[in-house]
Specification:
Blueprint (H helix, E strand, L loop, with lengths): L25 H13 L11 H8 L3 H13 L3 E4 L3 E4 L6 H23 L6 H16 L2 H19 L2 H10 L1 H10 L5 H17 L3 H25 L6
Antiparallel strand pairs: 1-2
Amino acid sequence: MSTPDSASPALDVSRRAPPARRITSATQIFDMLRAEIVASHLPPGTPLQDKMLIERFGVSRTPVREALIRLAEIGLVDIFPQSGTFVSRVPVKAIPEAVLIRKALEGITVEKAAEQATPERMGPLEKTIRRQKVAAGLGDLDAFHEADEAFHAELSELAGHPGIWTLLTQVKMQIDRARRLTLPVLGRMEQVIAEHEIIRAAVAEGDAEAAKTAMMHHLNAVILDVDALKDRYPDYFI
Protein backbone atom coordinates (compact mmCIF):
# COMPACT_ATOMS: atom_id res chain seq x y z
CA MET A 1 0.00 0.00 0.00
CA SER A 2 1.39 3.39 -0.97
CA THR A 3 1.62 6.06 1.68
CA PRO A 4 1.88 9.85 1.62
CA ASP A 5 5.23 11.53 1.66
CA SER A 6 7.04 10.87 4.92
CA ALA A 7 7.70 14.58 5.17
CA SER A 8 3.99 15.33 5.51
CA PRO A 9 3.47 16.46 9.13
CA ALA A 10 -0.18 15.41 9.06
CA LEU A 11 0.90 11.80 8.74
CA ASP A 12 3.91 11.71 11.04
CA VAL A 13 4.09 8.11 12.21
CA SER A 14 5.62 9.19 15.50
CA ARG A 15 2.36 10.98 16.33
CA ARG A 16 0.06 8.02 15.83
CA ALA A 17 0.47 6.46 19.25
CA PRO A 18 0.37 8.89 22.18
CA PRO A 19 1.76 7.66 25.51
CA ALA A 20 -0.46 5.08 27.21
CA ARG A 21 -2.79 6.38 29.88
CA ARG A 22 -5.71 4.93 31.73
CA ILE A 23 -8.95 5.07 29.75
CA THR A 24 -12.07 3.97 31.54
CA SER A 25 -14.79 3.69 28.92
CA ALA A 26 -15.57 2.63 25.39
CA THR A 27 -16.71 6.19 24.66
CA GLN A 28 -13.31 7.63 25.55
CA ILE A 29 -11.55 5.07 23.38
CA PHE A 30 -13.99 5.77 20.55
CA ASP A 31 -13.43 9.53 20.81
CA MET A 32 -9.64 9.23 20.79
CA LEU A 33 -9.49 6.79 17.89
CA ARG A 34 -12.05 8.77 15.93
CA ALA A 35 -9.97 11.94 16.30
CA GLU A 36 -6.77 10.14 15.26
CA ILE A 37 -8.42 8.59 12.21
CA VAL A 38 -9.97 11.87 11.06
CA ALA A 39 -6.62 13.62 11.56
CA SER A 40 -4.86 10.88 9.52
CA HIS A 41 -2.59 10.04 12.45
CA LEU A 42 -4.05 6.58 11.85
CA PRO A 43 -4.13 6.40 8.03
CA PRO A 44 -6.36 4.10 5.96
CA GLY A 45 -5.21 0.51 6.17
CA THR A 46 -3.71 0.84 9.65
CA PRO A 47 -4.42 -2.37 11.63
CA LEU A 48 -6.20 -1.86 14.95
CA GLN A 49 -5.29 -4.93 16.93
CA ASP A 50 -7.21 -5.69 20.11
CA LYS A 51 -4.04 -6.56 22.03
CA MET A 52 -2.31 -3.33 21.04
CA LEU A 53 -5.32 -1.21 22.03
CA ILE A 54 -5.84 -3.09 25.30
CA GLU A 55 -2.24 -2.38 26.25
CA ARG A 56 -2.38 1.21 25.10
CA PHE A 57 -5.55 2.12 26.99
CA GLY A 58 -5.13 -0.20 29.96
CA VAL A 59 -8.58 -1.77 29.70
CA SER A 60 -10.18 -5.14 29.09
CA ARG A 61 -11.19 -6.35 25.65
CA THR A 62 -14.86 -5.37 26.06
CA PRO A 63 -14.59 -1.54 25.85
CA VAL A 64 -12.07 -1.87 23.00
CA ARG A 65 -14.46 -4.03 20.98
CA GLU A 66 -17.37 -1.69 21.75
CA ALA A 67 -15.36 1.29 20.51
CA LEU A 68 -14.31 -0.50 17.33
CA ILE A 69 -17.88 -1.55 16.58
CA ARG A 70 -19.03 2.05 16.95
CA LEU A 71 -16.24 3.21 14.63
CA ALA A 72 -17.32 0.59 12.10
CA GLU A 73 -20.92 1.81 12.31
CA ILE A 74 -19.88 5.32 11.26
CA GLY A 75 -17.59 4.06 8.50
CA LEU A 76 -14.17 4.76 10.00
CA VAL A 77 -13.00 1.17 10.39
CA ASP A 78 -13.58 -2.12 8.60
CA ILE A 79 -13.92 -5.31 10.65
CA PHE A 80 -13.04 -8.56 8.89
CA PRO A 81 -13.77 -11.55 11.19
CA GLN A 82 -10.98 -13.69 9.75
CA SER A 83 -8.45 -10.97 9.07
CA GLY A 84 -8.72 -8.23 11.68
CA THR A 85 -9.79 -4.62 12.02
CA PHE A 86 -8.37 -1.85 9.85
CA VAL A 87 -8.87 1.88 9.41
CA SER A 88 -11.18 2.26 6.43
CA ARG A 89 -10.39 4.09 3.23
CA VAL A 90 -12.21 7.35 2.51
CA PRO A 91 -15.35 6.70 0.41
CA VAL A 92 -15.18 9.28 -2.36
CA LYS A 93 -18.85 8.81 -3.27
CA ALA A 94 -19.88 9.95 0.21
CA ILE A 95 -18.09 13.27 -0.01
CA PRO A 96 -20.31 15.14 -2.53
CA GLU A 97 -23.44 14.33 -0.51
CA ALA A 98 -21.77 15.45 2.71
CA VAL A 99 -20.66 18.66 1.03
CA LEU A 100 -24.23 19.34 -0.15
CA ILE A 101 -25.54 18.88 3.38
CA ARG A 102 -22.82 21.08 4.78
CA LYS A 103 -23.43 23.80 2.19
CA ALA A 104 -27.17 23.78 2.88
CA LEU A 105 -26.79 24.03 6.64
CA GLU A 106 -23.81 26.39 6.74
CA GLY A 107 -25.40 28.60 4.10
CA ILE A 108 -28.35 29.15 6.42
CA THR A 109 -26.06 29.50 9.42
CA VAL A 110 -23.82 32.18 7.95
CA GLU A 111 -26.83 34.18 6.75
CA LYS A 112 -28.27 34.12 10.26
CA ALA A 113 -24.87 35.02 11.69
CA ALA A 114 -24.71 38.10 9.45
CA GLU A 115 -28.17 39.13 10.62
CA GLN A 116 -27.19 38.77 14.28
CA ALA A 117 -23.68 40.21 14.12
CA THR A 118 -22.64 43.23 16.16
CA PRO A 119 -19.12 44.65 16.63
CA GLU A 120 -19.08 43.28 20.17
CA ARG A 121 -19.92 39.75 19.02
CA MET A 122 -17.25 39.56 16.31
CA GLY A 123 -14.40 39.10 18.78
CA PRO A 124 -14.36 35.28 18.84
CA LEU A 125 -14.20 35.03 15.03
CA GLU A 126 -11.36 37.52 14.83
CA LYS A 127 -9.45 35.79 17.64
CA THR A 128 -9.85 32.41 15.94
CA ILE A 129 -8.50 33.71 12.63
CA ARG A 130 -5.47 35.03 14.52
CA ARG A 131 -5.02 31.55 16.04
CA GLN A 132 -5.10 30.06 12.55
CA LYS A 133 -2.44 32.47 11.34
CA VAL A 134 -0.16 31.54 14.22
CA ALA A 135 -0.74 27.81 13.61
CA ALA A 136 -0.06 28.21 9.89
CA GLY A 137 3.16 30.07 10.63
CA LEU A 138 4.29 27.25 12.91
CA GLY A 139 3.15 24.54 10.50
CA ASP A 140 1.00 23.08 13.31
CA LEU A 141 -1.69 21.20 11.39
CA ASP A 142 -3.56 20.02 14.47
CA ALA A 143 -3.81 23.52 15.95
CA PHE A 144 -4.81 24.89 12.56
CA HIS A 145 -7.60 22.32 12.19
CA GLU A 146 -8.84 22.98 15.73
CA ALA A 147 -9.04 26.71 15.01
CA ASP A 148 -10.77 25.96 11.69
CA GLU A 149 -13.41 23.94 13.52
CA ALA A 150 -13.77 26.70 16.10
CA PHE A 151 -14.38 29.30 13.38
CA HIS A 152 -17.34 27.40 11.98
CA ALA A 153 -18.65 26.53 15.45
CA GLU A 154 -18.55 30.21 16.39
CA LEU A 155 -20.54 31.14 13.30
CA SER A 156 -23.18 28.64 14.38
CA GLU A 157 -23.15 30.13 17.89
CA LEU A 158 -23.43 33.67 16.49
CA ALA A 159 -26.39 32.58 14.37
CA GLY A 160 -28.14 31.30 17.48
CA HIS A 161 -28.14 27.69 16.29
CA PRO A 162 -25.14 25.92 17.88
CA GLY A 163 -26.80 22.54 17.34
CA ILE A 164 -26.27 22.86 13.59
CA TRP A 165 -22.51 22.57 14.01
CA THR A 166 -22.92 19.64 16.38
CA LEU A 167 -24.87 17.85 13.65
CA LEU A 168 -22.35 18.78 10.97
CA THR A 169 -19.42 17.35 12.90
CA GLN A 170 -21.03 13.94 12.38
CA VAL A 171 -21.91 14.53 8.73
CA LYS A 172 -18.52 15.80 7.61
CA MET A 173 -16.13 13.18 9.00
CA GLN A 174 -15.15 11.84 5.59
CA ILE A 175 -14.75 15.39 4.27
CA ASP A 176 -12.38 16.13 7.14
CA ARG A 177 -10.30 13.03 6.44
CA ALA A 178 -9.77 14.16 2.86
CA ARG A 179 -9.29 17.80 3.79
CA ARG A 180 -6.60 17.06 6.36
CA LEU A 181 -4.46 15.61 3.56
CA THR A 182 -4.56 18.96 1.76
CA LEU A 183 -3.24 21.09 4.61
CA PRO A 184 0.46 20.30 4.02
CA VAL A 185 0.10 21.51 0.41
CA LEU A 186 2.02 24.75 -0.04
CA GLY A 187 -0.30 27.72 0.37
CA ARG A 188 -3.36 25.72 1.37
CA MET A 189 -3.57 26.98 4.96
CA GLU A 190 -3.11 30.55 3.79
CA GLN A 191 -5.92 30.04 1.29
CA VAL A 192 -8.26 28.80 4.01
CA ILE A 193 -7.40 31.80 6.18
CA ALA A 194 -8.10 34.19 3.30
CA GLU A 195 -11.49 32.54 2.72
CA HIS A 196 -12.32 32.81 6.42
CA GLU A 197 -11.40 36.49 6.43
CA ILE A 198 -13.79 37.16 3.53
CA ILE A 199 -16.57 35.33 5.38
CA ARG A 200 -15.82 37.23 8.59
CA ALA A 201 -15.85 40.58 6.79
CA ALA A 202 -19.22 39.89 5.17
CA VAL A 203 -20.71 38.76 8.49
CA ALA A 204 -19.33 41.85 10.25
CA GLU A 205 -20.95 44.07 7.61
CA GLY A 206 -24.27 42.32 8.06
CA ASP A 207 -24.29 41.29 4.40
CA ALA A 208 -26.04 37.92 4.49
CA GLU A 209 -25.89 37.39 0.74
CA ALA A 210 -22.15 38.08 0.51
CA ALA A 211 -21.51 35.90 3.56
CA LYS A 212 -23.36 32.99 1.99
CA THR A 213 -21.56 33.43 -1.33
CA ALA A 214 -18.20 33.43 0.45
CA MET A 215 -19.13 30.33 2.42
CA MET A 216 -20.19 28.47 -0.74
CA HIS A 217 -16.86 29.30 -2.37
CA HIS A 218 -15.05 28.10 0.73
CA LEU A 219 -16.88 24.77 0.85
CA ASN A 220 -16.67 24.13 -2.91
CA ALA A 221 -12.87 23.87 -2.60
CA VAL A 222 -13.22 20.49 -0.91
CA ILE A 223 -14.38 18.70 -4.07
CA LEU A 224 -11.52 20.12 -6.14
CA ASP A 225 -9.01 18.91 -3.57
CA VAL A 226 -10.35 15.34 -3.59
CA ASP A 227 -9.72 14.87 -7.30
CA ALA A 228 -6.05 15.71 -6.87
CA LEU A 229 -5.75 13.66 -3.69
CA LYS A 230 -7.11 10.52 -5.37
CA ASP A 231 -4.26 10.68 -7.87
CA ARG A 232 -1.63 11.31 -5.22
CA TYR A 233 -2.88 8.83 -2.60
CA PRO A 234 -4.85 6.15 -4.47
CA ASP A 235 -4.79 3.70 -1.55
CA TYR A 236 -6.42 6.24 0.74
CA PHE A 237 -9.68 6.39 -1.17
CA ILE A 238 -12.30 3.94 -2.34
